[in-house]
Design a protein that fits this description.
Length: 573
């Protein structure tokens, strides 16, 4: 097993100091507020379909909210969660596109062809056009539907855009990450473009406005111009707190005592986002929506630890199938909840929001076949048992196969070199390469990157391709039971085989040079039509941008981190 140098910490010292023995049920961190858990305060009667506000944050770590014991200030989120229902057995996907696709379709990514990686800006790919989306179902039920924020579900054709997939209005970015002020996004050296759109047009005039504020202001404007007598659905997909780490200076100043610069900027972004949620909540009350509203808050994946995020005490990070990558922050706040002010341990997955919200809206699900989600509103509102008993985290046949996996290790029924993960009841199985696998306390996030970088890589080279955990008894994934319980391993492998038989082919096409922003006036946007194939002959020089080209800060940052990575790797022992 390859072991890398630690600066000031070792895994043994972490264990000896008790860092990895945090009480999962510690009241100050995840328990209910001081209220009788059996309290049943009856909500107002559902006289009409509720207004639905779905707030999705980007790369916010499991630890990075006040009620999980964080050093980051999130008073609004803490209050909304305390007055509603905290979801402490809530799962998402480990990266952006998969979580968003499962939210908007109610289907596992193996059933949409998006089981590998994310949708890249230059790929001729998007959410399959045959999928009936959540906002489309809500439109059928009479809702006015609006999206504000990050799309990241493809845009190579106009048919892929949010306004063609069920939203009446859209203000936001189409790609995965942009500058918070300039809205530049670089998909490699020299491939940079502007990415902020109003409907299907480029919103050049909004450049310079901090996206978190811009998006919250747009939500307020939508509420002010709509009638609370008519149901409304607003999907607020904040760019925050994804890189680049940018925040107004006054928020950074609050965390000036934090030694780690990345953590300081990240914390400022979280608090800024918290205040944006406060403004949205205030607008709901000001314009008469609140009493008949349901607010859902969710993260899209685990935090990125080398960009300031923390998933402590969970194992792993964004991009992995350890709990730190897939267990999310989630809560529901609504006057319509029957049993408020409590923590729910009901098993909930991001696919469940589709049938849950359509049912709340009194929409019709009878003509929607093949959903992987469940209606979990009775579990959330009334404390009933969740109808969900298992979660397919994913099966990715294209991800790098584990060096030591084999069909033999999978009892002849599953190749354990394939990256896959599933939870059934209290058991969780991982095969292949689940990703960086160590526990990273916030205390190790110092100004010296080597300490936390090397800690993450402690278990690199471990000759394994199968892990089994009792996730209820061992939520931190410390005790691998795969050798002690081969019977459970075999049972869960059979479930993977079952799901794999239902999977459709992976949609991950090669990048198309026609997508270059210089062919679109300097902005990212659709480049193909119904008559276009995915092959492009080229033969033209890129058109000059209509606007003066801006310097791409993201490209410079990526170059910096590549150099840093090379330097760190050269210092291994």
């Amino acid at each position: 097993m390859a072991v890398y140098a630690l600066t000031g910490f070792s895994l043994v010292s972490l264990l000896s100091f008790g860092y990895l023995s945090w009480d999962w049920m510690k009241p100050s961190l995840v328990a209910d507020v001081a209220t009788d858990p059996m309290e049943k305060s009856l909500p107002p009667t559902f006289t009409r379909p509720p207004h639905i506000i779905f707030i999705l944050t980007d790369d916010q770590g499991y630890h990075d909210i006040g009620y999980h014991g964080s050093d980051i200030q999130t008073p609004t989120l803490d209050r909304l969660a305390a007055e509603g229902v905290k979801l402490e057995n809530y799962y998402i996907q480990p990266i952006c596109t998969p979580s968003r696709s499962q939210l908007i379709t109610g289907r596992y990514q193996i059933h949409t062809g998006l089981q590998h990686s994310i949708i890249r800006p230059r790929q001729p790919n998007c959410l399959p056009l045959d999928q009936v989306t959540l906002p489309q179902k809500l439109q059928e039920a009479g809702y006015s539907t609006h999206m504000v924020g990050k799309w990241h579900l493809g845009f190579y054709k106009k048919e892929c855009l949010p306004t063609r997939r069920g939203f009446h209005t859209f203000l936001g970015s189409l790609t995965g990450n942009v500058d918070y002020y300039t809205y530049d996004n670089c998909d490699g050296p020299g491939v940079c473009g502007y990415d902020l759109h109003e409907g299907e047009d480029v919103a050049w005039d909004q450049s310079g406005k901090y996206s978190t504020f811009l998006y919250a202001q747009r939500v307020s404007k939508i509420l002010a111009s709509h009638s609370p007598k008519e149901p409304i659905f607003i999907y607020v997909a904040f760019q925050a707190v994804h890189t680049p780490l940018q925040s107004p200076k006054e928020y950074i100043y609050r965390y000036r005592s934090m030694g780690n610069v990345a953590r300081r900027k990240y914390a400022a972004m979280v608090t800024c986002m918290d205040e944006a949620v406060k403004n949205i909540t205030w607008a709901l009350k000001k314009y008469g929506y609140y009493d008949n509203s349901v607010i859902v808050f969710s993260t899209d994946n685990g935090g990125q630890t080398f960009s300031g995020g923390s998933n402590w005490p969970l194992r792993g990070r964004k991009g992995t199938y350890w709990e730190g990558g897939v267990r999310g922050i989630g809560f529901v706040h609504s006057p319509l909840i029957k049993r408020k002010r409590r923590t729910s341990w009901a098993l909930v997955h991001i696919t469940d929001w589709y049938p849950t919200l359509v049912s709340l809206a009194r929409g019709n699900l009878s003509n929607v076949q093949g959903l992987d989600g469940y209606n979990v509103w009775p579990a959330i509102s009334e404390g009933k048992e969740s109808p969900r008993t298992e979660i397919l985290h994913n099966i990715d046949p294209l991800y790098n196969h584990a060096k030591y996996g084999s069909l033999e290790d999978g009892f002849g029924i599953w190749n354990t070199a394939v990256q896959a993960s599933i939870r059934v009841g209290e058991w969780k199985l991982l095969t292949g390469d689940p990703g960086y696998s160590d526990w990273i306390p916030p205390q190790t996030l110092t100004n010296f990157p080597g300490s936390w970088w090397n800690l993450e890589r402690l278990t690199d080279g471990l000759r394994k391709s199968v892990w089994l955990f009792n996730i209820t008894a061992d939520p931190y994934e410390r005790y691998d039971l795969s050798e002690q319980r081969p019977d459970v391993v075999r049972t869960l492998l059979m479930r993977l085989v079952h799901y794999n038989r239902t999977a459709i082919p992976v949609r991950y096409p090669a990048e198309n040079p026609r997508a270059h922003p210089d062919f679109n006036g300097g902005a990212w946007g659709p480049w193909a039509s119904e008559d276009d194939g995915e092959e492009w002959e080229g033969g033209r020089e890129p058109l000059k941008s209509r606007n003066k080209k801006k310097k791409c800060k993201i490209c410079k940052l990526r170059s910096f981190f590549r150099k840093l990575n090379t330097r760190l790797m050269s210092n291994r022992i």
